[in-house]
Amino acid sequence: MSSIEPMTLGQIAQEHDEVETPKREVVFAVEDLAVAYASNVAIREVSLEVYKNAVTAFIGPSGCGKSTFIRCFNRMNDLVPSAKVTGNVLYHGKDLYADEVDPVEVRRRIGMVFQKPNPFPKSIYDNIAFGPRVLGLKDNLSDRVESALQRAALWDEVKDRLKESALGLSGGQQQRLCIARCLAVEPDVILMDEPASALDPISTTRIEDLMHELKREYTIVIVTHNMQQAARVADMTAFFSVDVAPDGGKRTGILVEYDRTSKIFTTPADKRTEDYVTGRFG
User: Does the pLDDT value for residue 217 go beyond 80?
Assistant: First the structure.
């Protein structure tokens, strides 16, 4: 009896691959971006475009600046006193770092889901209603809560326990609750920083399935250490690596290659990408 060979990353990516459209709408255009924390340059010379209604994944070894980079899209690095961002991040053609841009409005339009689920110590309902209430979106609040939970594939599991504490949910449910909380304020983009790294395989599959559903309405950017996950969910993949100073001291994240996911995992243009996705380093 013949055994079934496991699928390679390239086969996974090709199975997921979609027909390329002639012209894709650009949501983010990043130009020569660098981020430094005091004198330590975390990433430098990053330029790429993120497309509408697609999942874009950032992969690479630890310390290559993936999380620093994704936080540039909603100005989370502003909250780090020593952080300095240079270069341009254009959102629908507008400079996100222009003086007149309100970071709070940026974070409403560009929501974020973190590595570890972080529900508030409130009821399930109040977790979802929190953002709309802060923003003054109080009309039809219960409908908004239900809609967000529906889109996060959580409604059927919690509809009879909305007044119970969100802290009583499982880890996977808590992460979907955080996604629903993000959706409740009607964002344009959802950023996800290792959203499934703390979850079991079943919960991870649910989060990945949810990403496929959500990209119909939203643009999704994800950081992941899991290359199989990137191959399964992402339309575009950026591989980051680390440039180490000659003396072995300072390490700086650099963008090595950015392309369609199937190409990154089957015919990468850069030897460093090939070495990483085939497990030769990283």
Answer: yes
Q: Is residue 131 part of a domain?
A: no
Write down the pTM of the prediction: 0.89
Better pLDDT: 249 or 173: 173
The whole-number pLDDT of residue 3 equals 45
Residue 234 CB-density burial (10 A; 0-12 exposed, 13-18 middle, 19+ buried) = buried
CATH of the domain at 200: 3.40.50.300
In a domain? residue 77:
yes
Written as one letter, the residue type at 158 is: V
Domain count, the chain: 1
Residue 125 within any structural domain of the chain = no
Q: Which of 148, 161, 125, 259 is nearest to 210 (CA)?
A: 148
* Euclidean distance between CA atoms 101 and 3, whole angstroms: 58
Q: Is residue 221 part of a domain?
A: yes
Angle between helices 124-134 and 141-151 (to 10 degrees): 120
d(CA 260, CA 236): 4
Domain housing 200: 9-16+32-118+188-277
- Tell me how far apart the alpha carbons of residues 41 and 38 are, in angstroms, rounded to a whole number: 8
